[in-house]
Amino acid sequence: MTGVARVMYIEKELMDQLCIKMGSKEKPLSSRQAHRNIDKKMKELGFTDKRISTIAISNFYFNINIRKFAANQELPVIEEKLKEIRDYELRKTQIEQTATKVKTITKKVPTKKKLIKYLDIKTFPSDFYKKIQDDINLAYTHQIYSAVLILVRKLIKNLIISLMRKRYGYDKKENVELYFNTENKHFYNFNSILKKIEIKIKEKDFEVFPDLNIDLIKKIHKFREAGNKSAHTIMMNLSKSKIDEYKENLEFIINVLVQTNHDLTT
């Protein structure tokens, strides 16, 4: 069997298993629908390599043994993808827990309101970040300003984690330790991550990204502190005028982080 034929055979067998996992043995999903589901998940994760991503997604979400479908030289790359998925799902859980607080609060106010956009960032590294922006706008519309700050803090922190992962990767423990505590298996708190990226900026690791500078980190600290207070107290006395004071700087910060994420990918 030629190399190309083997790859086609492996991909067909993997897709057959996915069709069963996504449906059932008695009524498997169609191959077309399975491909659509994989493409949707890839978009959500920000993945582009179809073959490697499909194998990683199959293992993580459907418990399919990757050894049968991946060449030995592909395993390190697939393991990196699996780490990205684990990181993504952990952050997603954290955000969903915060969003639940927002939605619990908004049940107490009228739901039929025209959405007021506090943030209107057009592009993000993945749909994950757009969902956070949607929750920010929902909270702002219903005047739950403490929740706006909680979600702003989450958005900025996760964008920074994303760009650090892209800049430093997973190949060395000391690189991963810039944002993830490998001993205790959790991300460092926001303050620790900001201190670490501040050191790297001073070491000129981000010199080609002039907008990602110490002044930007100082602005982020301001949001972190405000977000911390709201996260810990769920204060209801924040005013719209106070939240609106942050808006211009916040949009600038997020656009810089989004653009840096994009530039590190290309």
What is the element layout, followed by pairings?
Layout: H1 3-22, H2 31-45, H3 50-62, H4 75-106, H5 127-141, H6 145-168, H7 173-176, E1 180-181, E2 186-187, H8 190-202, H9 214-233, H10 240-265
Antiparallel strand pairs: 1-2
Give an overview of the whole structure:
- The chain is mainly alpha-helical and 266 residues long.
- It has two domains: 3-70; 93-265.
- It has ten helices and two strands; from the N terminus they run H-H-H-H-H-H-H-E-E-H-H-H.
- The protein has a two-stranded antiparallel sheet with strand order 1-2.
- Helix 1 (3-22) packs parallel to helix 3, helix 5 packs antiparallel against helix 6 (145-168) and helix 6 (145-168) packs across helix 9 (214-233).
- The model is unreliable at 1-10 (pLDDT under 50).
Low-confidence stretches: 1-10
How confident overall, as mean pLDDT? Answer: 83
**Largest sheet data:** 2 strands, antiparallel
Number of DSSP helices? 10
Strand content: under 5%
Oligomer state equals single chain
**Care to count the β-strands?**
2
Instruction: Please state how the strands of the largest beta sheet are arranged side by side.
Output: 1-2
Please bin the fraction of helical residues: 55-70%
Report the principal-axis shape. globular
Task: Provide the gyration radius in Å.
Answer: 21 Å
> Structural class from helices and strands?
mainly alpha
H/E element order: HHHHHHHEEHHH
Structurally, the number of domains stands at 2
Tell me the span between the first and last alpha carbons: 36 Å
